[in-house]
């Protein structure tokens, strides 16, 4: 049966980097992969055309899709809009409406790019950490929320951080299952000494871990976790945390590798239907210049092939091709270092295509 | 008039490190500094003795004090207690009851300790960043909060993130005033693209900045800020942010210097009455071994002399003495490197005392 892939290029560098990943999917299609690509509007691009960052049509086609490939959303242009129609709201809407609660964010140091890290080589060499971020709950979606005017005339902004046991359990299971295929260690990150919501998080993880006797569960406060990521990131195997803490820690972790332009992510529902996107943002400052790094998006397509389309060998081919172009010394500007060959977005995409 | 200093050693390594700072204050007292030291219980130590982490007596004496010197609170021993009587609650209670809304957390790289950082020398050399963290509001104190049982029988944990304009303005002013004495740049950190509370934060900071024409205000999302701290921390002069984000970012920033054991902090009210404490925690794993680094606490005493007691020259003497013992190669275990002289907590304290 034909699998339906929805492509949402989004804003900023989104269209450029997605185009390179699509080239590769198209090549696999020519080779016989039974997929059908459909394009949709999201984010600022959607807002400009339709007045909403998540048009009903995009949501509908995404719901019917087997997988979604997303570029990035947001940019200066839309920053003064009301929060309810910002480009980001489109992304949050898809995550929530499609129940994509499990966000997998690897932080891997590519040996070819070891120099790109701002950390000392001995601290990050071989880094391979997986952050599992809860993506459809917590303070991102909690009600009530808003800005109200108090009796004395001043404004007050408020948000609600909320988690129930079932939400914590299902993301915990994802983390434990992933750890079982890795080094078997899960570090759950919370602020259980201050926030009751994450006290429940900690208790629930502890109870859940009893069903996973082979996995070692530890707990860490989020401030300490941010510190330990800088001090000794290789101590971690799998980290699991809330939506907000995961947002912060995964950006920090990915930068440890010096190459956030290299890192893909997957956001999955209960049935491994998923959305795939680079960890990095829409980078409006370099949009349209054909200099962005398409590899995170290309590697996101590889994750899609592996997790949703069950085409592990095609995923392997992409990952090996990426490794080969790096071995060949090809570098976009963000990962460039002396002695390497600087290439554009499309040259990088073509090189991966040729190396498949 | 005699100034009243309340000393709250707290838990873990707290008593050991505070003792070294007290030695120095006592020496200044002998030289004529008109202070009176009084001791109080806080945290786990207070809970064990009185059943509460913040006894009324401690709160009362702290309210009457001109300044407070705190060690650290918390430890494994109390982790299974209900959140309402945890050691941390004592610290949060003092902050809130004394209205210590402005938490100043410098991240400074000591040139003598340049090697201790896990970051490459060129990335952190000369790092001198001040994080201004809102300390008495936000999700730390927002109501409602707790754990409830839902109709279907499962538990739900909830917390409230809330800020009003006046709270944002007063912490903003502190940041702008500090920036005016530094490089004149404030970066306000929020998540205004997702959280309405921090949308108000951003708007309020922007409005406030109009009264500070000589200060350059920029805004950054918290995930990007965590990333930029690792990528290029020297881009920042002063960062100002919420209680929760400040907790995370300041721990991350202090670890950039490789020497969290060196960094003091001040928590001030509207009248520069304040509490002074090291940034690091109670480190229960090394408590009682006389190996902890007392310098962050000693430097906290220096901040107290400077900000609350108006004794800048004594503060200078402490800071110069710390610099001298580092020049002499003295190192506690946390900052030890080959070729240096490893010393204990009390040896380090004595060395600073002798170098005054
Ligand atoms: C764009 C923004 C809403 C989003 C988030 O905060 O989740 C982004 O930072 C991310 O991490 O995917
Ligand atoms: C001990 C804890 C309550 C405290 C906080 O979260 O504020 C600590 O981490 C700090 O940063 O001072």
TrEMBL record, chains A, B:
Alphabetical list of SMART domains matching this protein: Iso_dh
Annotated site residues (Important for catalysis) in this chain: 140, 191
Subunit structure: Homodimer.
Any single Pfam family the record assigns to this protein: Iso_dh
GO molecular function list: 3-isopropylmalate dehydrogenase activity; magnesium ion binding; NAD binding
Residues involved in NAD(+) binding: 75-88, 281-293
Protein name from the UniProt record: 3-isopropylmalate dehydrogenase
Subcellular compartments: Cytoplasm
SUPFAM superfamilies in UniProt: Isocitrate/Isopropylmalate dehydrogenase-like
Cofactor binding note: Binds 1 Mg(2+) or Mn(2+) ion per subunit.
E.C. code: 1.1.1.85
Residues annotated to bind Mg(2+): 223, 247, 251
UniProt record, GO biological process: L-leucine biosynthetic process
Main function: Catalyzes the oxidation of 3-carboxy-2-hydroxy-4-methylpentanoate (3-isopropylmalate) to 3-carboxy-4-methyl-2-oxopentanoate. The product decarboxylates to 4-methyl-2 oxopentanoate.
Family: Belongs to the isocitrate and isopropylmalate dehydrogenases family. LeuB type 1 subfamily.
UniProt cofactor(s): Mg(2+); Mn(2+)
Keywords: Amino-acid biosynthesis, Branched-chain amino acid biosynthesis, Cytoplasm, Leucine biosynthesis, Magnesium, Manganese, Metal-binding, NAD, Oxidoreductase
Organism superkingdom: Bacteria
Organism: Methylophaga aminisulfidivorans MP
Subcellular location, principal: cytoplasm
Top EC category: oxidoreductase
GO CC terms, sorted: cytosol
Family annotation (InterPro entries): IsoCit/isopropylmalate_DH_CS, IsoPropMal-DH-like_dom, Isopropylmalate_DH
Amino acids binding substrate: 95, 105, 133, 223
Lineage of the species this protein comes from: Bacteria, Pseudomonadati, Pseudomonadota, Gammaproteobacteria, Thiotrichales
Catalytic reaction annotation: (2R,3S)-3-isopropylmalate + NAD(+) = 4-methyl-2-oxopentanoate + CO2 + NADH
Domain (Isopropylmalate dehydrogenase-like): residue spans on this chain: 4-352
Pathway assigned to this chain's UniProt record: Amino-acid biosynthesis; L-leucine biosynthesis; L-leucine from 3-methyl-2-oxobutanoate: step 3/4
